[in-house]
Amino acid sequence: MLSQTRNILIKELPKDERPREKLLKYGVDSLSNSELLAILIRTGTREMSALDLSNKLLALDHDGISFFASSSLEELRRLKGIGDAKACQIMAAIELGKRIATKPKSKRINISSPIEVANLFLEEMRYYKKEFFKILLLNTKNEIIMIEEISVGNLNSAIVHPREVFSVAVRKSASAIILVHNHPSGNPDPSREDIELTKRLIAAGEIIGIEVLDHLIIGDGVFISFKEKSII
């Protein structure tokens, strides 16, 4: 008769193989994705260790760890062993990572090239399932005053009106703005609507004295700058 296999508890692993002990001894970079998740969720279930549960979490979607960037509490709680507390811990950690990745440093960032703008958004916006339209407000030195989310659309489009774009720019006394939105498909090539909207916003900006310097479309790890492509 074959003996039933059982999941190994984390406390049964050699100390150097336990996620928390590995982090303390070798640093956070030494941990796998499942080990990082195991530290977050802390405990497993009667049937599974925290490490086993983490591996099941990573297997929820074929995107693996990337799935968590756009996952919901409901999706996480579908897995047996993930209740409200564990789901909230995961969601909070993901949100902190997003905010750290996109928040400008205390010293204002001076924008001199499209890649500098793209680097602020690539890691966050590449995972969005809907179109988000954002603007960077710049002062006369091309330093970022703030980043403002203007609109959230569906899978294919975000409805944007010049009034919404420039009202915040006027309130914050911006000298210029840069437009940024994502394509959930992952392909950053601009559509005819993207080009027409950009031209309309440029024209509106000229009237009120706020220059539209560029428009970036973010795809899956790639981007297109309208200025670099001579679209504007």
Which short descriptors sum up this protein?
alpha+beta, single chain, Cytidine Deaminase, domain 2, 232 residues, 2 domains
Please provide a written account of the structure:
The protein has a five-stranded mixed beta sheet, with helices on both faces. The radius of gyration is 22 Å and the shape is elongated. It is an alpha+beta fold and 232 residues long. Helix content is 38%, strand content 15%. The chain folds into two domains: 10-101; 104-225, 3-Layer(aba) Sandwich (Cytidine Deaminase, domain 2), CATH 3.40.140.10. α2 (33-41) crosses α3 (50-58). It is built from eight helices and five strands. The chain has helices at 19-26, 33-41, 50-58, 73-77, 84-102, 114-125, 162-171, 192-208; strands at 132-138, 144-152, 176-182, 211-218, 223-225.
**Number of helix segments?**
8
Briefly note the structural class of the backbone: alpha+beta
Percentage of residues in helical conformation? 25-40%
Placed side by side, the strands forming the largest sheet appear as 2-1-3-4-5
Beta strands, count: 5
Q: Please name the CATH architecture of the largest domain.
A: 3-Layer(aba) Sandwich
First-residue to last-residue Cα separation: 74 Å
- Name the CATH superfamily assignment of the largest domain: Cytidine Deaminase, domain 2
> How much is the average pLDDT?
86
Low-pLDDT parts are none
Stated plainly, the CATH topology of the largest domain is called: Cytidine Deaminase, domain 2
